Task: structure prediction
Amino acid sequence: MDLTPLSNADLRTAPLRRDHCTLSDWSSACAALDAGRLTLLALWGEAAAVRMALLDEGARRIGLLTLPAETAFPSVGRHHPPAQRLERAVADLWGLVPAGAPDARPWLGHGAPYPFLPVEGDSLHQVPVGPVHAGIIEPGHFRFTAQGETVVRLEERLGYVHKGIEALMTGAVLARGAELAGRTSGDSCVAYQWAFAQAAEAGLACPAPPRAEHIRAVLAELERLANHLGDIGAICNDAAFAMMLAQCSILREGLLRATATAFGHRMGKDVIAPGGVSRDLTPEGVAAIRAALTAVAARLPRLVALYDGTASLQDRTVGTGRLSPALARQFGAGGFVGRAAGRSFDTRRSLPYGPYAELSFVVPARDEGDVNARVWLRIEEAQASLGLLDQLLSGLPGGPVQSGLVPSGPAEGIGLVEGFRGDVFVHLALGPDGRIARCHLRDPSWFQWPLLEAAIEGNIIADFPLCNKSFNCSYSGHDL
Result:
């Protein structure tokens, strides 16, 4: 099986080769996924071909397969369930049919009745929720089948916020592509922009300067820390402990304001660009960030003690929404969802990029897989981000912040960045004119949404908001 292997060194620095694989190679890859020897990173379609990115976690290598396909291709989901939703999206967006797929339902197309999976059994009833929700939240439909209050099955229907980002990118100049990438999922705009920039820089063999890479990492850790603090408070709020939400929101707001002072935007939008960054970090910006970090470091330990010492919170989170380590491994679950259930993968450590190979940090992991474990993962990752930011700000190198990257001729590259939810994957292909021929973006939520369905089984319906928030999957990044 020829996988076009990419080592840790050339993953983000070397252009890709476009080698077509055979049906035998495709089948071998499916068998390796089924056996757990490889992890599915992404599966996407393009004109007359379907492509698959695979990760060998033990060897820390990535492989790509490109299978020519005019109308159909052998289903990966037939052997490996994590591929099923990706295949449905490929069929809807590219008209390439996964032959033998166990689930051939449309992914988009909300004008027609949707055939939910059938359920059988005594005393079962269904509870539909959404797609419009009571709070300020993106649309998604959740169909519960319950026996009394106990959930027997949850089936999600997503796709309501399909924005056509990949279609908008086709034919766009690189700068416009970077803007669109940063708008894929608003709470992860830094991670998406960095992954897009990585892919462009790899394809054109033009790395960003060291100072730019450090500034990118500062932005990424601020994004991670702010989101984790927001999630900790929101999870506690769903367990009727609103005071934690208020306190965590104050700390998150301080970080967002510091980011705006340092980079001109609360979410760091449009700062990372192919070739470097669009805005340097000034002493005033460093001072604002350090002040916000000092506030977090002073108050976070007391909030952690409050969470850990409040019996009513522990009663709601411990043992609730448990995800098995076997499922986390099978689906290649990234971020706190995977690491709270025994899959200790973090691309900052496993496939390091930017300055992370030079930094000292711990990647926390747990085995319990419940809401409490996902809260603690966020707490421990927030603490790690505080340490990383101190190292980054103290060791910020001098020099330029842009390499002067100029698109010229056809090129292909891959980006892989650890966002706060997990690894964000970007594949970018440029045409002969230097414009974007094809760009595929994959959010970690593609592999986390199905696991939420599994985690809620056997819990009561009233605990779904708590489980859902502890996963905090992205609708927007998932639906593109």
